[in-house]
TrEMBL record:
Protein name as catalogued: DIS3-like exonuclease 1
Organism: Castor canadensis
Catalytic reactions on record: Exonucleolytic cleavage in the 3'- to 5'-direction to yield nucleoside 5'-phosphates
Function: Catalytic component of the RNA exosome complex which has 3'->5' exoribonuclease activity and participates in a multitude of cellular RNA processing and degradation events. In the cytoplasm, the RNA exosome complex is involved in general mRNA turnover and specifically degrades inherently unstable mRNAs containing AU-rich elements (AREs) within their 3' untranslated regions, and in RNA surveillance pathways, preventing translation of aberrant mRNAs. It seems to be involved in degradation of histone mRNA.
Gene Ontology, cellular component aspect: cytoplasmic exosome (RNase complex)
Length: 920
């Protein structure tokens, strides 16, 4: 068969050569030496050569590609050599695919995704059941896979087949806090109750990707021998095992973050084999660490291509963009009839949504949500559409963003900026003037001109009646006093009316069981120069809820419309009810404060959380809501054709149908929904409209991709925020720096410590009560902590430290303690925040209000210091290290298009079907 395939490919190459009339050489690349000998000189103009020869002859100056090729070939030679040697088996062989399939069908094996515990990566992983396995196995919890032997070469994220062990061999998950690099013996703590435990018998689908790694230190490399070629590199992600690669550049690259790929993992090898790909940057360098986060989340941020940019409309001073007469005829023009305005965070450029509200002649109200009409500019299956589909979302990091669409759209022509004409897709309701009940709804394309571009804080000030903020609103600056007063009254009435409508809409959802959940959210604020201005924990404002409720209302009504029109191929957003066992920690923590949390439904959960308030400590309710958030299932996009109607609901929002319609600039899901809505309301019932939509099968595949990219966006945002937190605290002495001391709240008890939440910085982390030397924390009469010999005793809602001298200190759930913040600097992984309890009393300041003000100032200083430190370090590095540019060029990522990049693009295109059958 292989020889037939090789011959067929060669015949195709000969045909192309003759078809081109010998005007260009045709190259057939193969590693089959027999084929090279047989066909190499048979036909003039057709070259049959190895990939190494192809590089040598056609790309002799592409050093990065040669380095990569050598690495891959060396890795392959080593695998072949090892397979011929009689090594003992390190792992059992995987079962054949047909055996795995039959075993899963019969119930002998269960199928699921391997999830490695990053805190105990060497010993603890879990398999979350998927598909038929979750229904047929009778299991209600994950399956524990204990140890590397039982994991059997499966890597985090792989889809695996697992064989359950006898109940006598079941183990429990560890309840102790542990360092990421701790081994099992170092813990010495009893595990929790035994849970279903199994071993991996086969891998159904590998989840291998690019991995960022660090080379051994200079001393470690030298200990392996000066000419050592096989090097064990340590992945940045704790959940990935060390990878063995072949290189002679270990010393050169030991201070860099490097990308590698896994090639194989033989049963005779302790570690997987891989090859070098490219260099990202120096360890600790801000840009290098950001690049690491992007690679680890498989985020590509290459510039938009020339082909994509050629599709963009023009908007320049010489050739300004204007509303076309054709569009004016097709659209409802709201520019002179509606007061339209936006409310967004400071510095927002990609304004997706605007709002309007007015009184109709019949006395009823009209509420409008107007969304950027992205699909007018982004046509189905265009280059821009395919790229947006691949990216799926805009990626927001702590100090930057990577757009899904080119900036001419995202920050200009699609952005609903103030004072300019823009195309929109609108949902407009007529509401009863007193009850706000919806009388009727209209969907359609519109032309708007936003009158004000407000930020949240300004809108809240106007809502609260503080009109001094008007001086900071640009649209009011050039008005005379009379016009200013009239427009102010008009705007304040509109904001107040929107807030009142939103309260009623929210109350209606509350009666159905809508949840108000809490997450730890910190955002980096940028100034006009794009420098980091502030790091701000989320401060809830009523206008946040006002805008959110209007967006939720629009999303809900659009979901109903597209489902009614396309019940078998509509893109909706599903939030299934969570598993009851996930609420156990929430219930226990609430019980410690005397609260009962009823989790039988979203309504009972919402009511319970509303009642679980400690008047003396508002942080308690925040933490309980945060725990409820963690217990939730993930909300996911899906195609309605694959689900029954009763499965379409959104648990958290208490809505029977929901989708995403309001952010098409930054979410591809919303672009799909806009096209569905336009098809649903179109008076033109031509067959082409339906043919331009996704089939149920293709939409399901697209939803899986979007869900995956959304998770990547969430993880990268969180990791970049943690990076800035660490960079701020890293250069401060925690023993003398007052800014490293803060108030913390205990929210979980473990066998050797507690988990603490620091509201001031939005940090959650572990605080040990027993150190590696076996000493325990003791707090004397002055409440300050010391490390002394002793023991710990854990109870349900508290933990007690007792010294050998009889001194006893007890820490309870929700206790406020004083915490010292420091950073554990790690060479191979991301730095981590370390928390140490230095007093069992709350952190006190002379004046609470002054403390709050100073904390805001501190956050501003935090980001400024991080930025300044990075700049100083870069200058120092330039002076200290004179890098030979020609030598370094071989290992760094090329700025131009390399052969490796070209091959990567070919691989990605092979994975992405962009044909008309797949298109929208």
């Amino acid at each position: 068969m292989e020889k037939w395939q090789t011959r067929s490919i060669y015949n195709a190459a000969v045909w192309y050569c003759h078809h081109c009339q010998d005007r260009m050489p045709i190259v057939m690349v193969t590693e089959d030496e027999e084929a090279i000998q047989q066909y190499g000189s048979e036909t003039k103009g057709v070259f049959v050569i190895s990939f190494k020869s192809y590089l040598d002859n056609f790309w002799p100056d592409l050093k990065a590609a040669h380095e990569l090729c050598d690495s891959i070939l060396q890795s392959r030679r080593e695998r072949e050599s090892e397979s011929q040697e009689s090594h003992g088996k390190e792992y059992p062989e995987h079962l054949p695919p047909e055996v795995l399939e039959a075993g899963i069908k019969s119930g002998c094996y269960v199928q699921g995704i391997l999830n490695v515990n990053k805190h105990r990566a060497q010993v603890e992983a879990f398999v979350r059941l998927q598909g038929a396995s979750s229904k047929d196995s009778g299991l209600v919890s994950d399956i524990l896979v204990h140890g590397m032997k039982a994991r059997n070469r499966a890597i985090h994220g792989d889809v695996v087949a697992v064989e359950l062990l006898p109940t006598s061999e079941w183990k429990g998950r560890t309840a102790a806090l542990c360092e990421n690099d701790s081994d099992d013996k170092a813990l010495g703590e009893a595990p929790s109750e035994p849970m279903p435990t199994g071993r991996v018998v086969g891998i159904l689908q590998k989840n291998w990707r690019d991995y960022v790694v660090t080379f051994p230190s200079k001393e470690e490399v030298q200990s392996q021998g000066k000419n050592a070629q096989k090097i064990l590199v340590t992945p940045w992600d704790y959940r990935i095992p060390k990878i063995r690669i072949s290189t002679q550049q270990a010393e050169t690259l030991q201070d860099s973050r490097v990308v590698v790929r896994i090639d194989s993992w033989e049963s005779t090898s302790v570690y997987p084999n891989g090859h070098f790909v490219r260099v990202l940057g120096r360890i600790g360098d801000l840009e290098g660490e950001i690049a690491t986060i992007l690679v680890e989340n498989s985020i590509s941020v290459v510039p938009f291509s020339e082909a994509q940019m050629c599709e963009m409309p023009v908007n320049t001073p010489e050739n300004p963009w204007k509303v076309s007469p054709e569009e004016e005829q097709k659209r409802k023009d709201l520019r002179k009839t509606h007061l339209v305005f936006s409310i967004d965070p400071k510095g927002c450029e990609d304004v997706d949504d605007t709002l309007s509200v007015r009184t109709l002649e019949n006395g009823n109200l009209e509420l409008g949500v107007h969304i950027a009409d992205v699909t007018h500019f982004v046509l189905p299956n265009s280059y821009t559409d395919v790229e947006a589909r691949t990216r799926a979302t805009t990626y927001y990091l702590a100090d930057r963003r990577y757009d899904m669409l080119p900036s001419i759209l995202s920050a200009d022509l699609c952005s609903l900026l103030g004072g300019v004409d823009r195309y929109a897709v609108s949902v407009i309701w007529e509401l009863d003037k007193t009850s706000y009940e919806i009388k009727k709804v209209w969907y359609g394309r519109t032309i708007i001109r936003s009158a004000y571009k407000l930020f949240y804080e300004a809108a809240q000030e106007l809502l609260d009646g503080n009109f001094s903020i008007v001086d900071d609103i640009p649209e009011f600056k050039d008005l005379d006093e009379r016009s200013r007063q009239a427009k102010l009254e008009e705007l304040v009435w509109a904001i107040a009316k929107l807030a009142d409508i939103a309260r009623h809409v929210r109350a209606k959802r509350d009666r159905c069981g809508a949840l108000e959940l809490e997450g730890v959210e910190v955002r980096v604020q940028l100034d006009e120069r794009k420098n980091i201005h502030d790091l701000i924990p989320k401060q809830p404002l009523e206008v946040h809820e006002t805008v959110a409720e209007c967006m939720i209302l629009a999303n809900h009504w659009v979901a109903k419309k597209i489902w009614e029109s396309f019940p078998h191929q509509a893109l909706l957003r599903q939030h299934p009810p969570p598993h009851q066992e996930f609420f156990s920690e929430l219930r226990e923590c609430a019980k410690a404060k005397g609260f009962f949390i009823d989790t039988r439904s979203n309504k009972t959960l919402a009511d319970s959380l509303d009642k679980a308030k400690d008047p003396s400590d508002p942080v308690v309710n925040r933490l309980l809501r945060s725990m409820a958030t963690q217990a939730m299932s993930n909300a996911l996009y899906f195609s309605t054709g694959s689900h029954a109607e009763e499965e379409l609901g959104h648990y958290g929002l208490a809505l029977d149908k929901y989708t995403h319609f309001t952010s098409p600039i930054r979410r591809y899901s919303d672009i799909v929904v806009h096209r569905l809505l336009m098809a649903a309301i179109s008076k033109d019932k031509k067959v082409e409209i339906k043919e331009n939509l996704f089939s149920n099968k293709d939409l399901e595949e697209l939803c899986r991709h979007i869900n995956n990219r959304n998770r990547a966006a969430q993880h990268s945002q969180k990791q970049s925020t943690e990076l800035f937190q660490c960079m701020y605290f890293k250069d401060k002495d925690p023993e003398t720096e007052q800014r490293c001391i803060s108030d913390g709240v205990i929210y979980s008890i473990r066998t050797n410590g507690v988990l603490v939440f620091i509201p001031r910085f939005g940090i959650k982390g572990a605080a040990y009560l027993k150190n590696k030397d076996g000493l325990v924390i003791s707090c004397g009469p002055d409440s300050h902590s010391q490390w002394k010999p002793g023991s710990l005793q854990r109870f349900q809602n508290r933990i007690t430290s007792t010294t050998t001298g009889g001194e006893s200190t007890t820490f309870h759930l929700f206790d406020h303690v004083t915490v010292r913040i420091s950073v554990q600097a790690l060479r191979c992984h991301s730095d981590t925040i370390r928390l140490e309890i230095i007093s069992n009393k709350p952190y006190m300041t002379p004046n609470t209000e002054l403390s709050h003000q100073s904390s805001l100032l501190l956050k501003s200083e935090l980001v400024k210091e991080v930025t300044r430190s990075v700049e100083e370090a870069q200058l120092a590095q330039e002076v200290k290290v004179k890098v030979n540019e020609e030598e370094y060029q071989e290992y760094r990522q090329t700025k131009g298009r390399s052969l490796y990049t070209l091959l990567e693009e070919i691989r990605d295109l092979a994975l992405l079907d962009v044909s008309n059958n797949y298109g929208i």
